[in-house]
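So, does this match?
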Amino acid sequence: MNIQEYIESGILEQYVLGTLTLREQTEVERLADAHTEIRQELDQITQALEGYALAHAAAPPAGMRERVLAGWQAAIQLEAPVAATPPVAEPGRVIAMPASEEPARTSGRALTWLMAAAVALLLISNFIFYRNWQNASQELTAMQSSRDELAANTRVVQERLTQRTNELAMFRDDAYHTVQLNGTPNAPGAKARVHFNPTTKAVYVEVRNLPKPPEGKQYQLWALDNGKPIDAGMLAEATMTGDSVQLMKSIASAQAFAMTVEPAGGSASPTLSSMAVLGNMN
């Protein structure tokens, strides 16, 4: 037995609406006891149908109760046997026998069952539409979330591609002077590079190897112009680990560059005792 096909057949909705025969109801209950998936689906349909009914409930029109009762009374009177008065025979008169009323009563009962079946079918159709609409709404929300996530990832990739393109252009530009920064006794194995364009005043820093600074500390780049230190900016985490080349503050003139370890956010003047790398322009 394919449980999923059984669930999707619509028989569970008919069970909840009470349109199945006694044998069919018994079969649904047996399968629901035997299969957890069917029981869960049956419970969900029941809850959803109750929610749908509550959401769309409306007060009956005025006089509805009286009209329904009157209709039932009329139907009962139509089906109740009426004693017919036998025709009186007269000489020379042909008496027509009354037509049987059974076909009319049978037609009325058939119409009643057809109307009940139509109402049940309408309820089932509305409920299935409501459940499918809920599923479609959830799927649409998930698709929109995936689309937004994809758009965000695309923006990140585009920004990274633009950054790499700019870095490549910088490396190929002969106007940039590369300054090799070597480690000091504080960090003998440290290495970094500064790419300085005297014309545009642009400064890029590229880390080869730097020790991780203490907690609450950050590397700060300094340009030395005639021995005077000028703040060239703080190194980002990605730059410090060598993951990217960082554009620093513009510098008008410099003969050397250095990095020191400073409190997070930077200092107004360098802490010379914490200098990690130093390099002169050729």
